[in-house]
Specification:
4 helices
């Protein structure tokens, strides 16, 4: 998965979080539906990366506090 695609998923995760539709631990299902071209493993990796590096990604993408 390229960095551009990761950023698309990260953007989606921020929007999903803002919507309050799901707890972010359950976000993988939503990501898989939105990005069906990604494997389960890729989804798991990108969601885990987003959670682990939340502050850095938020700042880089303009979702800072």
């Amino acid at each position: 998965m390229c960095d551009v695609q990761k950023d698309e998923v990260y953007e989606y995760l921020f929007l999903l979080q803002e919507s309050g539709v799901t707890n972010m631990f359950g976000s993988g299902t939503y990501v898989q539906e939105e990005f069906p071209e990604l494997s389960r493993g890729e989804v798991r990796t990108v969601v885990t990366d987003w959670m682990s590096n939340y502050s850095e990604i938020a700042e880089r993408l303009g979702y800072g506090e």
